[in-house]
Automatic annotation (TrEMBL):
PANTHER family: ABC TRANSPORTER PERMEASE PROTEIN MG189-RELATED-RELATED, SN-GLYCEROL-3-PHOSPHATE TRANSPORT SYSTEM PERMEASE PROTEIN UGPE. It holds the Pfam family BPD_transp_1. Coiled coil: none annotated. It comes from Ureibacillus aquaedulcis. It comes from the Bacteria. The chain crosses the membrane at residues 12-35, 71-95, 102-126, 138-156, 177-199, 236-256. Belongs to the binding-protein-dependent transport system permease family. Residues 67-257 form the ABC transmembrane type-1 domain. Gene3D superfamilies: MetI-like. Keywords: Cell membrane, Membrane, Transmembrane, Transmembrane helix, Transport. The keyword Ribonucleoprotein does not apply. Its main location: membrane. It is a multi-pass membrane protein. This is Carbohydrate ABC transporter permease.
Length: 271
């Protein structure tokens, strides 16, 4: 049944308005990144647009170093989550052991525990391991994710049990079956989880703030905060240019993986 033209007009008009409302802050930040501080503070239209704010962003703090740190942290966390979540999901689906379902439900129950509740124990652990200002301290606490395990388990359950039994007949072990059969079938869900893990890690603020004390491994979100000061007038053009630079990698990731993400979300909704 097709939608009447009048309803289509109303529907797409509401979608356009909603998209503009959601995108307006990003558009405003983009425009402000080319304006000088005088025009921004007075709220007037820009007299001219220049890239000076972007140059100042690289000059005022080590932006490239922070971007590199964020990239390393995000990639390591993403790989760790993909490996551990896929292995755990495989165990919960294909390995038979006593108390498997109870253990899985307990594991999923940890999703109800807010991250803030685990900050102090995690901080004590990385401090005792001398991981303060180290990449392991920024990454290892996020390797285990109940959401990722649940997502991949639901995908792995779609693989016929007969396929696993056939692989056992021909002498294929668990690890080979996991690499040769399970992972290729779950490629879409792996891409979805990878994109989610990367974006979440890239935008982390609280944990890197607590687990770093200098610029050695400090991430870009902490660096952006350093552009703001309470002692003098903030240069909002430079701050906005830094914010635009920071979101570019996430936009690239979303554009490149858009089809896979849409496919993964559709399959997740069906399951």
């Amino acid at each position: 049944m097709t939608m009447p033209i009048s309803k289509k007009i109303v529907f797409y008009s509401l979608l356009t308005i909603s998209a503009f409302v959601v995108f307006a802050p990003a558009l405003m930040a983009f425009v402000m990144s080319f304006m000088d501080n005088k025009d921004i503070m007075t709220g007037s239209l820009p007299q001219s647009l220049s890239f000076d704010n972007y140059l100042k962003a690289f000059e005022q703090f080590p932006l490239l170093k922070y971007l590199f740190n964020s990239l390393v942290v995000s990639v390591v966390i993403t790989i760790g989550q993909l490996v551990l979540s896929s292995l755990a999901a495989y165990a919960f689906v294909f390995l038979e052991f006593k108390g498997r379902d109870i253990l899985f439900f307990l594991f999923i129950a940890t999703m109800m525990v807010p991250f803030e509740a685990s900050i102090i124990p995690n901080f004590h652990i990385i401090r005792d391991l001398n991981w303060i200002d180290q990449y392991p301290g920024l990454t290892v606490p996020f390797f285990a994710t109940a959401f990722g395990t649940f997502l991949l388990r639901q995908n792995f359950k779609q693989i016929p049990r007969e396929l696993r039994e056939a692989s056992q007949i021909v002498g294929m072990g668990d690890f080979k079956f996991y690499l040769k059969v399970v992972l290729p079938v779950a490629k879409t869900s792996l891409v979805t989880l990878g994109a989610y893990g990367f974006l979440t890690s890239w935008n982390m603020y609280l944990w890197p703030l607590l687990s770093t004390t200098n610029d050695t491994v400090r991430t870009v979100q902490i660096g952006l905060k350093q552009l703001q000061t309470q002692e003098q007038l903030n240069d909002w053009g430079v701050i906005m240019s830094g914010a635009i630079i920071v979101i570019i990698p996430t936009l690239i990731l979303l554009f490149l993986g858009q089809k896979q993400l849409q496919k993964g979300l559709t399959e997740g909704a069906i399951k």
